[in-house]
Amino acid sequence: MSVALDTFPKLLLDHARRRGGRPANREKDYGIWQSWSWAAVAREVGDLACGLAAMGFRRGDKLAIIGDNRPRLYWAMTAAQALGGVPVPIYQDAVAEETAFVLAHAEARFAIAEDQEQVDKLLAAKDRVPSLEAIVYSDPRGLRHYRQPFLFSYAAVQEKGRELAAAKPGFLEAEIAKGKGADTAIIVYTSGTTGQPKGVVLSFDNVIVTARNAAEREGLSETDEVLAYLPMAWVGDHIFSFAQSYCVGFCVSCPESAATVMLDLRELGPTYFFAPPRIYENILTQVMIRMEDAGWLKRRLFHAFMNVARRVGARLLDGQKVGLLDRACYALGQLLVYGPLRNALGFSRIRLAYTAGEAIGPDIFTFYRSLGINVKQLYGMTECSVFLCIQPDGEVRPDTVGTPATGVEIKIDESGEVLYRGPGVFQGYFKNPEATAAAKRADGWVHSGDAGFFAEGGHLKIIDRAKDVGRLADGTLFAPKYIENKLKFFPYIKEAVAFGNGRDSVAAILNIDLAAVGNWAERRGIAYASYQELAANEAVGELLRGCVEQVNRDLAAEPALAGSQIRRFLVLHKELDADDGELTRTRKVRRGFIAERYRVLVEALYSTAPSVRIETEVRFEDGRKGQIRAELAIREAACLPLAREAPPLRKAS
């Protein structure tokens, strides 16, 4: 009788048996790609699992994992699961206080850290986390003189494992066989947009069934290649870089460092890729900056062929009919522009790419698809193991998130909120039955917290977070995320926070994109010494005024939103930062926190004052604090009456 492959350790043993020689993981170290086959990964995981068992790790124990994307850290997840334990990944850029919260809440007995930086965080947290008994580190650099008795090297733990395996043959296989699909596979902590993070409990059935369904729908195979560069603590990375690899058997590669991701991407040439909108926006910003610095002939060629691509590229990708002349022009553009650009970005071999997390601008979305890159939107969240909706091939639209994923049901309740149920629905929030009951109904339907509706063809449209959709004082619909996304379509605006619920008008706080605005300033001979100085520059303020007024023209063309044009705005003197609590670790705006932290700015925006003085406390990663003081100019933006037709939204130039 065949054994049910219902846990990741069982899947690993199956891959080692059936495709043991195929690559499972790669890592770039000192500029050289190192590879491990499925058989080698099974040995590495086995040694670590037995080593943890020798140290006292038992079924039900929690293993905290913190660091950058590294094969050894992914193996640690499987090793914990092999013993019936539960991995708990922590964001690698979390400050000591955030790290301590997750460790304590999850009651982690063991932790595995990538390097000295992460070990120091764990040591700083240990006094507040009585449950933490042992810390294992992967990279020994800088740790030679650390003498704590509870500190162990990864290699030493694996050596203990080899000794236990020799003394107890069959021990690990017996432990793996005890696991079943209903067991807890992982606890993933949410990003804490509205408060402390919540631990989302996902079973093997949740993750494996959902990952397998999506892989089958999209035709993923063992020949695909993925670059794992997004935080391991984020559920998306867990699905794309771990679960689907185990379900299908493809290879997952880890970059040398966060700073080398784009270089490593070009070298690797993945076939399957995921990035949140911010990454696509940043890449496009860099492309446009390079084009501005290029010679006039190259600029002319680029813009001419991109006009062709915008007109026919997406239609060709979707298999639609395109005239012979347009095909010929696109083919020439493929030779001169599109192909070289894809190659420079590392996108030459991409067969399937996703974006999710937030809405992506139509211009940005169309740009990539016009180059022949099959970028699609998906819709999901931690509580459903990521996949709720996927855009089907041939039905990819910039304003929808697709149709329900395999096995998923979606409905819209009377308030307009999206509800869902399916195989990926979480078991509950760890040690938080009240929050579980509020999100997950007894009949299996889960509240998404998003407002949306079904469009033509059964495609779901998401408007905004349900709790954030409001009304202006005159009753006009106010959808802040919709407005913010329009602002962020411009390369010069990195982040935006809109206010207006219950007010007479809409106001906004903006962050500049330092790279894009810095390049713009340098080309105009504008000197600056810091982010704060550049953000306060009068010419930069006028540049952003143009962006805001372009958004207002676009809003004026939409009757339901024409009254929510932006009347006043200011450019913040600092970047919104997760370390200051303004963003989550997945880079989402914590709107309520910002409204409270910058209350003096918000009130000034709704006054007649031309400027406002602010003193802001900032926190550094090591826990130190500092003060930033600034006088911020408040600018008026022209608002238009309802227009019959508005000019299309486009990138600022």
Protein described:
The protein folds into four domains: 8-254, Rossmann fold (3-Layer(aba) Sandwich); 275-373, no CATH class; 374-467, Luciferase, Domain 3 (Luciferase, domain 3), CATH 2.30.38; 470-636, ANL, C-terminal domain (GMP Synthetase, Chain A, domain 3). It is 39% helix and 21% strand. Helix 12 crosses helix 13 (324-345). The protein is globular, with a radius of gyration of 25 Å. By secondary structure, it is an alpha/beta fold.
Keywords, separated by commas or semicolons:
653 residues; alpha/beta; Rossmann fold; Luciferase, domain 3; 4 domains; five-stranded parallel sheet; five-stranded mixed sheet; 21 helices
Task: Produce a short descriptive summary.
With about 650 residues, the chain is α/β, with parallel strands linked by helices. Helices cover about 40% and strands about 20% of the residues.
Show the helix and strand layout.
Elements: H1 8-18, E1 23-29, E2 32-37, H2 38-54, E3 62-66, H3 71-82, E4 86-90, H4 96-106, E5 110-113, H5 116-126, E6 134-137, E7 151-153, H6 154-167, H7 171-178, E8 184-189, E9 199-203, H8 204-218, E10 225-227, H9 235-248, E11 251-254, H10 261-268, E12 272-274, H11 277-293, H12 296-317, H13 324-345, E13 352-355, H14 362-370, E14 375-379, E15 389-390, E16 403-404, E17 409-412, E18 417-421, E19 428-429, H15 433-439, E20 446-454, E21 460-465, E22 470-471, E23 477-478, H16 480-488, E24 493-499, E25 506-512, H17 514-523, H18 531-535, H19 538-556, E26 566-571, H20 591-597, H21 599-605, E27 611-619, E28 625-636
Parallel strand pairs: 1-11, 3-4, 3-5, 5-6, 6-7, 10-11, 12-13, 13-14, 25-26
Antiparallel strand pairs: 1-2, 8-9, 9-19, 14-15, 15-16, 17-18, 18-20, 20-21, 22-23, 24-25, 26-28, 27-28
